[in-house]
Amino acid sequence: LKSNPSNNEEKEAQTQLTKSDELQRLHSQALSAYQQEDYETAISLLDEILAVCVWDAELRELRAECYIKEGEPSKAISDLKAAAKLKSDNTEAFYKISRIYYQLGDHELSLSEVRECLKLDQDHKQCFSLYKQVKKLNKQIESAEELIREGRYEDAINKYDSVMKTEPEVTVYATRAKERICHCLSKNQQPTEAIKVCTEVLQLEPTNVNALKDRAEAYLLEDLYEG
What we know:
Structural class: mainly alpha
Largest sheet: none
CATH topology of the domain at 151-226: Serine Threonine Protein Phosphatase 5, Tetratricopeptide repeat
Order of helices and strands: HHHHHHHHHHH
CATH class of the domain at 151-226: Mainly Alpha
Strand content: under 5%
Number of strands: 0
CATH architecture of the domain at 151-226: Alpha Horseshoe
Radius of gyration: 25 Å
GO molecular function: misfolded protein binding; protein-folding chaperone binding
Mean pLDDT: 94
Number of helices: 11
CATH superfamily of the domain at 151-226: Tetratricopeptide repeat domain
GO cellular component, one term: endoplasmic reticulum
Keywords: Coiled coil, Disulfide bond, Repeat, TPR repeat
GO biological process, one term: protein folding in endoplasmic reticulum
InterPro entries: DnaJ_C3_Co-chaperones, TPR-like_helical_dom_sf, TPR_rpt
């Protein structure tokens, strides 16, 4: 504006300055809402800012934190993936994405993202620790599924027991393991045990189609046709 003043440019410059002041005010309000744990308000304010400041990685990371607190992990992943691209060597974003996928039970995607973190920094303590955990779990699940394909149901049951011991905290893995054990017992002509385990799964997930099918097979083996 100083180097080449004209009416049009002055008007545009004043508009941008006014918008800039407004965005700074919204940013302060968003930070305040976040600190007060009013995540819904913080998200709403950050939406307004990011509509203009599309390429701001830190604002996306802040909104991702709010989404995590609000129980919307898929939206958090979307913002963190953008932040990982916008900021170079963003190991923290890759770590958080991997953690979210892991908590959701998607161990394969979790492993992929934590590897991206370690590509940037092979000495990253949090990523390395998570990598070891996810890799171990991933290997056990792959091994168990291979045993099922080979019809070695007893071995597969033992392997899924190991999965539950490897990850006792994140319940989705225990539920999935029980679902597969229920399948193995049904296929292995152990209907009484299959019905028991399938029922445990269905108490947690009443619409689990796999558990319903496997329990139905077990009921057939027991001549319990109504069931």
